[in-house]
Design a protein that fits this description.
The complex is a heterodimer of chains A (541) and B (328). Chain A is an alpha/beta fold and 541 residues long. Chain A has helices at 35-39, 46-54, 58-66, 72-78, 82-86, 98-112, 134-145, 162-165, 174-185, 200-206, 237-243, 263-274, 295-303, 401-419, 456-461, 472-479, 493-497, 524-528; strands spanning 12-13, 25-29, 126-130, 149-153, 190-192, 211-214, 220-221, 234-236, 255-259, 279-283, 307-309, 312-317, 321-329, 335-345, 348-351, 355-356, 370-371, 374-375, 388-390, 503-505, 512-514, 534-538. In chain A, strands 5-4-3-6-19 form a five-stranded parallel β-sheet, with helices on one face. Chain A has a five-stranded parallel β-sheet with strand order 8-15-9-10-11. In chain A, helix 11 packs across helix 12 (263-274). The longest helix of chain A is centred in the last third of the chain and has 19 residues, at 401-419. Chain A is globular. Chain B is α/β, with parallel strands linked by helices and 328 residues long. Chain B contains eleven helices and nine strands. Chain B has helices at residues 48-64, 76-81, 101-115, 128-133, 136-144, 196-202, 216-227, 242-245, 252-262, 287-291, 307-324, and strands spanning 68-72, 86-87, 93-95, 121-127, 150-155, 207-212, 233-238, 268-271, 274-278. Chain B has an eight-stranded mixed β-sheet, sandwiched between helices. In chain B, helix 1 (48-64) packs across helix 7 (216-227) and helix 3 runs parallel beside helix 5 (136-144). The chains are: A alpha/beta (541), B alpha/beta (328). The interface between A and B is large, with 55 and 50 residues. Strand 1 (12-13) of chain A pairs parallel with strand 2 of chain B.
């Protein structure tokens, strides 16, 4: 013992003192489900692709995005973005412009000619897809990625379905649509146009397909009985919009009345304005709050001078006059007629009262269940007939492009499993990353970069795209507004704020782990995690 | 950090950020930070002082190229970091008495000067008891002689180590073991205590600053700046004490943040006795937001809130905001 006076022990490090023994709760890194991903009908990993876009790695972002949805440039124009409604940033300042960034990525991909990765393993199975609309294209893409041979049979002269024959050009330019369709075909998907399937079982047999996915859409405009003089000009919205794709543009006259309250009614009225109509009046039997059309589209239509007669139904139509009956809402919110009538001058009347599905190809197929004009499908998207799946507008669901794309993906996964004699079991969903789980203090303030809107005067007279895109700096800025809800973005907060150095930083891309030898379980890391990616759980006693 | 980080919206206020270069990140984001105060120390769960000490000393270590000696006053920080024979310090560290840290640091600095070690810098550190009360004479001497020492006070507003007794840094109305929440004027009385940063400024020393564990970038920038200056320097760091304040351990940083945002703890810098910068309040909150999360102020709330004293606290905060110009 050659120690100084009164010293009996060697100096030691406090690392010998395992303070982790004090702990009664332990922190746990988690991945929570971001609300945007949760709300996306196409099941996109939005937080995931924004994360890539934030670093300026747009191709990687596009690849994450197209892992779920092969049509980002289309989606970035026509999707009603429920993701933005759900976005947690909306509770802070304004939601992230997810749709704008998606469109930017889609446009970048078209500009730079990015291609999908080639298919690696061919399964040897063949799947028939009926209909080249969003749902059919999505299913074809996903099936092809899984290695199956795919043939799309389309009744129309061009691919796209309602994206081409329903959505006007000022919302979706056709070169964008063509570009994204071609990229799917380039994967080796076969497309036969102008071929209407009349008997599905025969077509499957003839082509010796192993399974079929039906997505024929809903193309038949609903009619309503309206007493009309023989010279009244009455059209249905679907045929009208379809004829916009042809050489001869339909003639509507100076004053056009559109009957209905959905997005299609707005599309017709806005198209009529562009065709030179001085007046485009929408007649709808309920109120604005009850209107099924999306508010952003109504707002744009109103800005363009489209008029709306709320609480009105059409009683009679003649060559130049339409008689409208005023309605009132009863206590259940249902419109009831009044004794008040009004005459509107009109050269033509377009009915936009919804669409029906042409189910003729399914006649005689055993096991099928048809209800309210739609094909009933099980949760795995299979109809009552084994091997025949269906999706998009022909099954009961909200009829939007995004829902259709989501159906295509979901069906493809189930078809793949079915072809292999298995059942597809989706991974269990993470807990939702709600706003109360976040610590928004750490995000600096930044408002949404609004896409420039075409000058009003210009857009009512031409079919130029109404909403234009973000440029690179804008898109990057917008992507970086993402809060990364529920998913670690390696901000180092947990590593920094631990009073006990009990968080180990594993380096870029590898996140962090806890050193439970020293973690006292104080929970500061949980409180100070900006994105809610840590939670406390009781220690096993 | 004063510079606005353009386009890096996500995580501008966080410890690190994968989109920033290494130099733009904080010292605490560094995978190889010194961890000057190492794991295994016996501070309570969620200790603000342990956090503040590591933030400050790690920053000083980087600023001096690891040529640093620390002198410690008696107090929580000394007790929890060095129970014989263990130490959590990964730097040369010396402890003498409760009241003489500033004087010992003066001596260490003088020894370095004699040895010709111009590269080795000296820090003295202590709690508010060792600084504002017991060590105050030595501290004032160190200031007036302008000795080349950075003195850091970790202010948790009472003598926590010995059982939460009042110090001259304890705020009005706070309940401590020696200012119980009883009688007509419960808790610490108004009109007592002293503001040591302002007293330090009155010595016209080269640099005085206040900092908080709730604003890491600001704290690191101030410590780094202090190490670029020679002469007597003083940094007063606000460090919540979950045990003494009766707050939840996970709320340590939240409470420090609310103290800044309500105006009760102003963040500023002063050179040669003049205030030269202040860190503005980002989102102002009423003092109640800060007070009602701590049991030491619980008697102000309850069934019949003590609105008069809450008002008085709010006036203190408002006075700080006006004096230092804390609103942008």
């Amino acid at each position: 013992m050659d120690k100084p006076f009164a010293i009996t022990l060697d100096p030691g490090s406090s690392l010998a003192n395992k303070t982790g023994a004090w702990r009664t709760n332990r922190p746990l890194y988690v991945d929570r489900l971001p609300p945007c991903n949760h709300a996306c009908p196409a099941g996109e990993n939005i937080q995931g692709w924004l994360y890539q876009a934030e670093s300026g790695n747009y191709e990687a972002a596009w690849r994450v995005l197209t892992g779920d949805n092969p049509l980002p440039a289309i989606m970035g124009r026509v999707c009603y973005h429920p993701c933005e409604t759900a976005c947690n940033r909306g509770q802070l300042d304004e939601s992230v412009g997810i749709n704008s960034v998606e469109r930017f990525l889609g446009d970048e991909a078209l500009k730079k000619h990015w291609k999908f990765s080639p298919v690696k393993d061919e399964s040897g199975k063949r799947v028939l897809v009926v209909g080249a609309g969003p749902s059919g294209l999505s299913a074809a893409y996903h099936l092809r990625r899984l290695g199956h041979g795919v043939k799309i049979v389309e009744a129309g002269p061009l691919a796209g379905g309602m994206m081409r024959f329903g959505i006007p050009k000022y919302r979706l330019p056709r070169d964008v649509l063509d570009g994204e369709v071609q990229r799917i075909l380039d994967m080796g998907v076969e497309l036969e146009l102008n071929c209407k399937v009349t008997n599905i079982l025969e077509t499957i047999d003839a082509g010796s397909f192993d399974a079929a996915f039906l997505a024929v859409g809903a193309h038949i405009g609903k009619r309503a009985y309206i007493p009309a003089g023989s010279s009244a000009r009455i059209l249905d919205a679907v045929s009208f919009l379809r004829s916009m794709e042809g050489e001869d543009r339909p003639k509507l006259g100076r004053r056009v009345v559109v009957y209905g309250g959905g997005n299609t009614a707005l599309d017709v009225a806005r198209t009529a304005k562009r065709l030179g109509a001085e007046e485009a009046i929408i007649v709808y039997r309920r109120t604005r709050e009850k209107m099924p059309a999306h508010d952003s589209e109504l707002e744009e239509a109103l800005q363009e001078g489209v008029l709306v007669k709320w609480l009105s139904t059409i009683r009679h139509a003649s060559e130049s006059t339409i008689v409208v009956q005023k309605m009132v809402l009863d206590e259940t919110g249902f419109p009831q007629p009044t004794d008040e009538y009004e005459a509107l001058e009109a050269d033509s009347l377009v009915l936009a009262l919804g669409q029906d599905v042409d189910l003729s190809l399914l006649e005689g197929v055993p096991g099928l269940e048809i209800k309210d004009g739609t094909v009933q499908v099980a949760p795995n998207m299979m109809t009552g007939h084994a091997g025949i799946f269906a999706g998009g507008d022909m099954v009961p669901a909200e009829r939007t492009v995004t829902v259709g794309v989501g159906h295509g993906k979901k069906a493809a996964r189930h078809i793949d499993a079915w072809l292999h004699g298995r059942a597809y079991v989706p991974a269990p969903k993470h807990e939702l990353a709600t706003f109360d789980k976040m610590n928004p203090w750490y995000y600096s303030d930044a408002s949404k970069t609004v896409r420039p809107v075409l000058e009003l005067a210009r857009r009512t007279s031409t079919f130029d795209e109404v909403v234009s895109g973000l440029d690179e700096t804008n898109a990057l800025f917008e992507a970086r507004r993402c809060l990364s809800c529920g998913n670690c973005f390696e901000c180092d907060n947990c590593y920094g704020v631990c009073p006990d150095n009990a968080v180990i930083k594993l380096g870029p891309g590898n996140r962090f782990e806890f050193n439970f030898d020293y973690c006292k379980g104080c929970g500061i890391c949980v409180s100070e995690c900006p994105c809610g990616a840590i939670k406390m759980v009781p220690e096993a006693s | 950090m004063d510079t606005q980080i353009k386009f890096y919206q996500t995580g501008t206020f966080t410890v690190g950020n994968r989109l920033l270069t290494e130099e733009q990140r904080t010292v605490q984001a560094d995978m190889h930070r010194t961890n000057s105060l190492n794991s295994g120390h016996r501070a309570c769960q969620g200790c603000g002082e342990a956090l503040g000490a590591r933030y400050a000393i790690d920053a000083a270590m980087r600023a001096t190229g690891n040529q640093l000696i620390a002198v410690n006053a008696t107090g929580c920080l000394e007790v929890f970091s060095t129970p014989y024979p263990e130490t959590s310090w990964q730097i040369p560290w010396i402890h003498s008495l409760f009241g003489n840290a500033a004087a010992v640091a003066t001596g260490v600095a003088a020894a370095q000067r004699v040895l010709g070690r111009t590269d080795v810098r000296v820090i003295a550190q202590g709690g508010d008891g060792g600084t504002t009360d017991i060590g105050f004479g030595c501290l004032s001497g160190m200031f007036e002689r302008n000795d080349d020492v950075l003195y850091i006070c970790y202010d948790n507003e009472a003598y926590m180590n010995t059982g939460v007794q009042r110090s001259s840094a304890t705020p009005p109305t706070a309940r401590t073991a020696t200012t119980p929440a009883v009688g007509t004027a419960p808790g610490n009385v108004f009109g007592t205590g002293k503001n040591v940063p302002l007293i330090a400024m009155a010595h016209r020393i080269p640099y005085v600053a206040t900092a908080s564990v709730a604003n890491l970038r600001d704290l690191e920038q101030k410590v780094t700046h202090a190490m670029e200056i020679h002469g007597a320097r003083y940094i007063h760091i606000f460090v919540p004490c979950p045990l003494g304040w009766g707050s939840a351990p996970e709320d340590t940083i939240l409470i420090a943040r609310l103290a800044i945002e309500c105006g009760l703890f102003p963040l500023f810098e002063a050179h040669d006795g003049k205030v030269t910068s202040r860190t503005p309040i980002r989102r102002q909150v009423p003092v109640t937001e800060y007070l009602n999360k701590q049991k030491r102020f619980a008697h102000l709330f309850g069934k019949t809130p003590d609105t008069a004293r809450i008002e008085q606290m709010q006036r203190m905060a408002d006075q700080n905001i006006a004096d230092f110009g804390l609103l942008q």
